[in-house]
Amino acid sequence: MLYFSNFSDNIRYILHQRSNGHGIIVDNVPNDCDLLVVVDSSTNSTDECRELSIRCDVIVVDHHHKYQENPYCTLVNPTIHGYENPSMCGAQTIWKVCLAYDMKYGHNLAYNYIDLVMVGTIGDMMNLAVLENRYMVSCGLYLLESGNGNIGLKTLYDRLQKNSKPTAESIAYYVAPCINSIIRMDDIYITMELFTCTDQVECDRIVDKIIDINEKRKELTDSIFEYIKANDMVNDDKVIIIDMTGSSYSRNIYGLVANKISQDYNRPCLFGEIGDDGNFYGSMRCPNGVDFLSDGMNSGLFLWIRGHS
To answer: Of 64, 90, 107, which residue sits at a domain end?
Structure first.
């Protein structure tokens, strides 16, 4: 949005709270929309794209695996077109679209936003052994340190890390979890306000709010983790399955708790609850080196799996 705002002021954004799930919600797209650009989802949203294509052009810029045909949009996805680096996150993929626009029309603007790409790459745990990913992260860290990048991101980083030199580790352990917390606490619009803010005083106010929400998220995550330990819900099985059916905890942070359990016990963790149809729904997290996406699909035990390996 920041990039294309250089060329038009007729741009609006639609964000879905975590509780609304992933993908396109057709009713949320304005009737007067001429072009819909969907970022980081909807490669497989064939029905939604079919419905929307009647009234507007649809471009899907995504990095998730393709499971079905979707001829009703222009699809940009590094995992399906034979691109040499399929290990890109949504932020990287949309940035490549901006870079292509630069190259076609003689602009030089895309690199002004590569600090946001860097955060997305690290936060979505993309493979940093891939040279292109390392290059984007390196450029992003340099832009963040220089103070010439996104003022909101710089304000958040300095508050969390006391003006220290940005590193991939500090982004991974402080900045990315903080942003992730806001999204999972259904306050995603606050993050967008921060990244589009150009006033330092306003950025400081937004960061205060973000840090307060993040502290509440930590308390909630810790309370669920302590509840699980107190009730001896972790056994010795190779895969830890935590059934939270009937609890009052928010589903939005199931992935965060699953990740904490997986890292603490060094085993895959499936964290969720039983639905009305008797099936178990939840979030899966694994230690490094475990590719549960393909293993799970090949096991025959799952009705539906989406996400990253």
So the answer is: 107
d(CA 309, CA 301): 17
Two tokens at 22?
Answer: 């992933």
Residue 7 belongs to a domain:
yes
DSSP letter (8 states) at residue 20:
G
Structural domain span for residue 8: 1-107
Work out the pLDDT band at 19, boundaries 50, 70, 90: low
Q: Domain boundary at 86, 107, 128, which?
A: 107
- CA 98 → CA 111, 113, 142, 259, distances in Å? 9, 10, 20, 33
* Inter-residue contact 52 to 26 (CB < 8 Å): yes
Radius of gyration of the chain (CA): 20
Pairing of strands 240-243, 280-285: unpaired
Number of Cβ atoms within 10 Å of the Cβ of 77: 19
The residue among 235 and 103 whose pLDDT is bigger is 103
Q: Whole-number mean pLDDT of the chain?
A: 91
pLDDT at 21 over 80: no
Taken in order 93, 98, 104, 109, is the CA torsion positive or negative?
negative
The residue length of the chain stands at 309
Answer positive or negative: Cα dihedral of 129, 127, 296, 256: positive
> Measured over all CA atoms, what is the biggest interatomic distance in the chain, rounded to whole angstroms?
62
What are the respective helix, strand and coil percentages of the chain, to the nearest 5? 50, 10, 40
